[in-house]
Amino acid sequence: MNSVTKKWLFMKISSVILVPLMIWFILNLVSIFDKDYIEVVNFFTTQPSKILVSLTLVFAYFFSTLSISEVFEDYIQNEKIKNAANKVLNIFAIIMPIITITVILNLN
């Protein structure tokens, strides 16, 4: 399978997975929006919330990385700059969810 086809397929699959996760996240964000700190922390310390927030972050970063790399492919002509930008983007897309998920999993 062609790499461009794989990227397109991964974008479509991740977007389909993100729809219910984002609906869940938005509905819960609205429900905890006006709560105090303790109630928000309690929400994020429950096991289903930890798992679903983690999945949302992973798929959101994965989808955004694929989307932004397409912008790099379309608008950056210099191959060295394009490759460097894609590498920095991929590193960022790995490190940020790991840090965020680690913080969420360590909430008590």
Automatic annotation (TrEMBL):
Pathway linked to the protein: Carbohydrate metabolism; tricarboxylic acid cycle
Keyword line: Electron transport, Heme, Iron, Membrane, Metal-binding, Transmembrane, Transmembrane helix, Transport, Tricarboxylic acid cycle
Compartments in which it is found: Membrane
Function (record text): Membrane-anchoring subunit of succinate dehydrogenase (SDH).
Pfam families referenced in this protein's UniProt entry, alphabetically: Sdh_cyt
GO biological process, alphabetically ordered: tricarboxylic acid cycle
Entry membrane topology: Multi-pass membrane protein
Quaternary structure and interacting proteins, as annotated: Part of an enzyme complex containing four subunits: a flavoprotein, an iron-sulfur protein, plus two membrane-anchoring proteins, SdhC and SdhD.
Any one Gene Ontology cellular component term annotated for this protein: membrane
Protein name: Succinate dehydrogenase hydrophobic membrane anchor subunit
Positions of transmembrane segments: 9-31, 51-68, 88-107
UniProt entry tagged with the keyword GTP-binding: no
CDD domains cross-referenced by the UniProt entry: SQR_TypeC_SdhD_like
GO molecular function terms listed in the Swiss-Prot or TrEMBL record: heme binding; metal ion binding
Domain of life where this protein originates: Bacteria
Cofactor(s) essential for the protein: heme
Species, as recorded: Pelagibacter ubique (strain HTCC1062)
